[in-house]
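Dear colleagues,

As part of the handover before I leave the project, I'm documenting each prediction I ran so the next person doesn't have to rerun anything. This entry is a single chain, and its sequence is reproduced below.
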Amino acid sequence: MKKSQVAAQCYTIREFCKDAASFATSCKKVKAIGYAAGQISGVGPIPEDEIVKITKGEGLAICATHESGKTIVEDVNKVIDRLGKLGTRYTAYPHPHQPITSLADAQALAQALDQAGEAMRKAGQVLTYHNHATEYRKFEGRTIMDVLYDETDPRNLQGEIDTYWVQAGGGDPVAWVQRLNPRLPLLHLKDYGVHDDGKGGRISEIGRGNLDFKRICAAAEQAGCEWFIVEQDTCPGDPFDSLKISHDYIAANLVNG
């Protein structure tokens, strides 16, 4: 990956993006760390034109957003309008907006996402899917992830693989990145550590967990990934410190241009 492809997910710093003033301060910090772009998610009710003004002023691109899953499938034109105002092509369906308790439920979601993604594609935009561990539950021998990607047109639903949650769900991050070649424009970089008591996984800064990011990122580059996005849902301290730890590891070990 190139330095110009490394982005920070604003959800990581959501507590510092509640209004335009705090968002502007946060963007300045993100740029100073070395990130080239931000993904708009978890920020306060800031008008789109103000978000654009602030990010441009700090020299940050807007690589993508996360939008409400319910809005994506029930009012996709609202999403299309918002992305147009922000000047970005990509958004991600962030989490199932209603329970998935059967294969039929998974298939119904796949159909809804395919329809929304088709509308976005016709508007020159791209719908991706952001996974958690829950999508690795199986119904009739198939994971929800299998259903979502098998039963949608690759032109209408692409991927925003989250490396931590693939691992947490029992999947293989490298295999999933390879599987989605060439429908993986976005990748969430999130390391998988272990709690001190040895019970369960812990979201960690890049390089402080156990995932093989050299293999993951090499596979993503082969898949044509455009944005490598650092996200850390929970941080042990100041989230800007965590973003810097991750960025510094990426810059020293993964960036090739």
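The CA atoms of residues 166 and 172 lie 6 Å apart. The chain has a mean pLDDT of 98.

All the best with the project,
I.
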